């Protein structure tokens, strides 16, 4: 059985109920804030909110950030099934998850991401769904990095014909010629530095600008007399 496609809340092994508290806060924020863009996902998404890149590029676009550290696909699926997007009316949803599904095959990870996309589509028929590719990880070449590459290739074929779903390639430029990743891009060889965030998420920002401007009336730039 593909565990990625079975929604699961995070087990409260630490005993402090933080994960559920964060989820409930996100549900409340979706009710209280009028967001044009909602980012949903894992630690890559969560960490982005604490960068200069977020403040400079994404905060002005009225974005909410529903990222939780260490979340797997099945956890994000549970959160979406349990209200995080029910009260929001965004124009775009950005989904990044899968890097923490260490025990799953590339096929299972890709199918799990497709399940989340299907769940989002059931709740928001007309929303644009933006899926950034999974980033490489680890200072040196490793099996997990290879797995992420395989997932990205599968997503390219699975998403190509889906309406209002856009795959954005953000994983290029991190692996150097000797196969290593620099701590200047990923301080722990997974989470992005500010420079790494800019390299990865500027293409996402450019696409968001295009999608958010669709349907907007063109401004009259003719000088007034």
Any idea what the shape is? globular
SSE-based structural type: alpha/beta
Strand coverage percent? 5-15%
Mean pLDDT: 94
Nearest-angstrom radius of gyration? 18 Å
Oligomer: single chain
Can you write the helix and strand succession as a string?
A: HEHHEHEHEHEH
What share of residues is helical? 40-55%
Distance between the termini: 69 Å
Major beta-sheet overview: 5 strands, parallel
**Beta-strand segment tally:** 5
Strand order, largest beta sheet: 2-1-3-4-5
Output the number of helix runs: 7
Low-confidence blocks of residues: none
Give a verbal description of the structure.
The chain is an alpha/beta fold and 225 residues long. It contains 7 helices and 5 strands. Strands 2-1-3-4-5 form a 5-stranded parallel beta sheet, sandwiched between helices. The longest helix has 20 residues, at 194-213. The protein is globular and about 45 Å long. The N and C termini lie far apart (69 Å). 40% of the residues are buried. The model has no long low-confidence stretch (mean pLDDT 94). This is SGNH hydrolase-type esterase domain-containing protein. Residues 39-198 form the SGNH hydrolase-type esterase domain. Pfam families: Lipase_GDSL_2 (PF13472). It comes from Tenebrio molitor.
